[in-house]
TrEMBL record:
<protein>
    <submittedName>
        <fullName>1-aminocyclopropane-1-carboxylate oxidase 1-like isoform X2</fullName>
    </submittedName>
</protein>
<dbReference type="InterPro" id="IPR026992">
    <property type="entry name" value="DIOX_N"/>
</dbReference>
<dbReference type="Pfam" id="PF14226">
    <property type="entry name" value="DIOX_N"/>
</dbReference>
<dbReference type="InterPro" id="IPR044861">
    <property type="entry name" value="IPNS-like_FE2OG_OXY"/>
</dbReference>
<feature type="domain" description="Fe2OG dioxygenase">
    <location>
        <begin position="200"/>
        <end position="300"/>
    </location>
</feature>
<dbReference type="Pfam" id="PF03171">
    <property type="entry name" value="2OG-FeII_Oxy"/>
</dbReference>
<dbReference type="InterPro" id="IPR005123">
    <property type="entry name" value="Oxoglu/Fe-dep_dioxygenase_dom"/>
</dbReference>
<keyword id="KW-0479">Metal-binding</keyword>
<keyword id="KW-0560">Oxidoreductase</keyword>
<dbReference type="InterPro" id="IPR027443">
    <property type="entry name" value="IPNS-like_sf"/>
</dbReference>
<comment type="similarity">
    <text>Belongs to the iron/ascorbate-dependent oxidoreductase family.</text>
</comment>
<dbReference type="InterPro" id="IPR050295">
    <property type="entry name" value="Plant_2OG-oxidoreductases"/>
</dbReference>
<keyword id="KW-0408">Iron</keyword>
Length: 367
């Protein structure tokens, strides 16, 4: 494994990333590339070094305007950013990491090995396009928590995940308001847009990406954009693997201890009328490390009606921007997404437009 320490990131945090050899073959778009030129690697490092890191502590002092601009730039040009000083206690994150890794060893690892063996995944010779090399379980927090019903979780693990979810929910709502401010929308607009009749949907996907013998043939998680609103990710600080597509190139989201990675989903693209875009990302498993990730999805409520914010449409029209986004019920979008997650988002938007003009069609059946 090749380990590259990048210089201090812009917020005086050292960003370290691990580049394996075979397991970290980079790709342009979805085209597999056996070897990378020096120029490609330098370009990739250059992009990675400019990955936006936002120090939330700076939102309270004389660096507020600069920090807000940085968030704006990240939303407009990356669809991703990384938060430090976000207010979630580092000790809580350490406890969660320890318990998540312990839970994987105790309750998930054997199951994953059996799954791999039953499908012969260790010996694949051609690219696998219908499976991901990940071991996961899901928790629901809102509108109702299901944590008490998840089997195999220790009580203290349940308790800390519940507390973590409350903090993440607050952080997500704080971020939505920062986005409103940058977009020129009234405070609370996005929260309200997500609310529906029963409040937002909020859940967590806990994942492990175990060492993978063929990372070039089977992805940890295939490329996709997220369907929902705003996503908050607590990722392993040692084993990298999450990549986003930036300017046609896959680049690592740098692991950084105690940070929270944020990315924007399809719903924010619709509501902002394309001012902010959901961005393709994927996970590349490593040959020699198990990566933990805890992704929390703050999404609209099932019956929330999603459409571009009128203020942004008017402004966009003035600027003669092209393209319009559909109006739909979030639940209908999710039914479509379940079948089309690993495909481009544009046909999903088109399909919702067709439903909008012909409501009797209903969403595509996914069962
Ligand atoms: O595990 C990660 O880092 C990302 C997971 C992800 O993108 C997803 O579940 O949608
Ligand atoms: Fe994702």
């Amino acid at each position: 494994m090749r380990r590259i320490m990048l210089g201090p990131a812009s917020e005086n945090q050292s960003v370290c990333c691990f580049l394996g050899t075979k397991s970290r073959e980079r790709e342009r778009g979805e085209q597999p590339q056996e070897k990378q030129s020096f120029t490609t690697i330098s370009r990739e490092r250059e992009i990675m070094e400019s990955f936006p890191v936002i120090n939330m502590g700076n939102l309270n002092g004389d660096k507020r305007a600069i920090t807000m601009d940085k968030i704006k730039d990240a939303c407009e040009n990356w669809g991703f950013f990384e938060l430090v000083n976000h207010g979630i206690p580092p000790e809580m994150m350490d406890t969660i990491e320890r318990m998540t890794k312990g839970h994987y060893k105790k309750c998930m690892e054997q199951r994953f090995r059996e799954l791999v063996a039953s499908k012969g995944l260790e010996y694949v010779q051609t690219e696998v396009r219908d499976l991901d090399w990940e071991s996961t379980f899901h928790l629901k927090h809102l509108p109702a928590s299901n944590i008490s019903q998840i089997p195999d979780l220790d009580d203290d693990y349940r308790k800390v995940m519940k507390e973590f979810a409350v903090k993440l929910e607050k952080l997500a709502e704080e971020l939505l308001d920062l986005l409103c401010e940058n977009l020129g929308l009234e405070k609370g607009y996005l929260k309200k847009a997500f609310y529906g009749s029963d409040g937002p949907t909020f859940g967590t996907k806990v994942s492990n990406y175990p060492p993978c013998p063929k990372p070039d043939l089977i992805k940890g998680l295939r490329a996709h954009t997220d369907a929902g609103g705003i996503i908050l990710l607590f990722q392993d600080d040692k084993v990298s693997g999450l990549q986003l597509l930036k300017d046609g190139q896959w680049v690592d989201v740098p692991p950084m201890r105690h940070s929270i990675v944020v990315n924007l989903g399809d719903q924010l693209e619709v509501i902002t009328n394309g001012k902010y875009k959901s961005v393709l990302h994927r996970v590349v498993a490593q040959t020699d490390g198990n990566r933990m990730s805890i992704a929390s999805f703050y999404n609209p409520g099932a019956d929330a009606v999603i459409y571009p914010a009128p203020a942004l449409v008017e402004r966009a029209a003035e600027e003669a921007s092209e393209g319009t986004y559909p109006k739909f019920v979030f639940e209908d979008y999710m039914k479509l997404y379940a079948a089309l997650k690993f495909q481009a988002k544009e046909p999903r938007f088109e399909a919702m437009k067709t439903m909008e003009s012909n409501p009797n069609l209903g969403p595509i059946a996914t069962a």
